[in-house]
Amino acid sequence: MADTFDYVVVGAGSGGCAVASRLSEDPNVSVVLLEAGGRDDNWVVTTPGALILMVSGPVNNWAFNTVPQPGLNGRIGYQPRGKGLGGSSAINAMCYIRGHKADYDRWAALGNTGWSYADVLPHFKRSEDNSELDGFYHGKGGPLSVTKLQTDNPVQDIYLQAAREAQFRINEDFNGEEQEGLGVYQVTQKNGERWSAARGYIHPFMGTRKNLHVITGAHATRILFEGKRATGIEYRQGKDTRQVRARREVILGLGAFQTPQLLMLSGVGDQAELARHGIAPVHHLPGVGKNLHDHPDFVFGFRSGNPNFLGLTAAGIGRIVKSIFQYRRERRGAMTSNIAECGGFLKTRPDLELPDIQLHFCMAVVNNHGRTPFFGNGFSCHVCLLRQKAAAASGCKAPIRCSRRRSIRTSSATRMISKRWSVPSRPPSACSMRPP
Question: How many independent structural domains does the chain possess?
Answer without folding.
Answer: 1
